[in-house]
Design goal:
The chain is α/β, with parallel strands linked by helices. It has one domain: Metallo-beta-lactamase, Chain A, CATH 3.60.15. The chain is built from 9 helices and 15 strands. It has an 8-stranded mixed β-sheet.
Length: about 280
């Protein structure tokens, strides 16, 4: 009996200490999902925001490791409907209760319909943002969403349909624009996306058609995270982008080379470390 107790203790203690619910602080976690995007945000009071779901089910492993026993996600955000941002989300809905979902225009296909069906069966509040909207998540924590204007929704390029976001929470800040191209990034600047952020998620996995220098300069990040697959056929990330960031003194974290990463603030100073998966 005692032997079984110690075996279970040995198995569950690492999960307890890894769980995001243990420490009361803001966090941003990027999961290594290969050629796609999946990341998550946490407030000091424990609100969880999941953003995108990668190209396969591997994001589920990251969420499970990070969330531990927690089975509720407060907000689910999908930047846009491409499969490399969506694949794990229908399964995510079967494992977690989703309170609210912020969805982009133009979701279609079997995976999207399965996801929507799952959200509706849960009673999730589904919102399609039509204009810039900000939520005060808790004291010193805000989340702002920037949907595309009609100009971009009329185009055939779904990358420019991406929901952009800005998260500013207790000394930690993040900006992300999904797979937006340079023209959409510049439109964000002219429409009021003026906030700086310590962390910038590189648009479109570091593609040469995104990450306009003016956009990067306005955000003024300390770190740029590039969520990208090793040896991908798209040539991501653009070598010129990597070089320009390093010349500017901006740190670069690549999931294909360095894996998953967690960011947190300590006395308003950004800290980060690899998660080993």
């Amino acid at each position: 009996m005692y032997r079984l107790f110690f075996i279970l203790l040995f198995l569950f203690i690492p999960l307890y200490f890894f769980s995001s619910s243990v420490v009361s602080r803001a966090e941003v976690v990027f999961f290594d999902v290969g050629q796609g995007d999946a990341f998550a945000l946490k407030t000091p009071q424990g609100k969880i925001i999941a953003v995108d779901g990668g190209p396969d089910l591997s994001a589920l492993y990251g969420w499970g490791r990070w969330l531990g026993w927690k089975r509720t996600i407060d907000i689910l955000i999908i930047s846009h409907g491409h499969s490399d941002h969506l694949a794990a989300l229908p399964e995510l809905v079967t494992r977690y209760q989703i309170k609210q979902a912020l969805l982009p225009s133009g979701l279609s296909g079997i995976a999207a319909q399965t996801l929507l069906s799952g959200l509706r069966s849960q009673g999730t509040a589904i919102i399609y943002p039509q204009s810039e909207t900000c939520w005060q998540l808790e004291p010193a924590c805000s989340l702002c969403i920037f949907p595309p204007t009609a100009e971009f929704l009329k185009t055939d390029d779904e990358n420019d349909w991406s929901l952009a976001l800005h998260f500013n929470c207790d000394g930690l800040s993040l900006a992300a624009a999904g797979d937006a191209n340079r023209r959409r990034e510049l439109a964000l600047l002219s429409s009021g996306f003026l906030w700086q952020a310590q962390i910038l998620k590189a648009s479109h996995h570091g593609a040469d058609t995104s990450n306009d220098p003016s956009f990067v300069a306005r955000v003024k990040p300390a770190v740029v995270v590039i969520s990208v697959g090793a040896d991908n056929t798209y040539g991501h990330p653009d070598p010129e982008l990597i070089n320009s960031l390093r010349v500017a003194g901006i740190k670069v974290w690549r999931t294909d080379e360095q894996g998953s990463v967690i960011f947190y603030a300590n006395n308003k100073k950004i800290n980060y470390r690899g998660l080993g998966f």
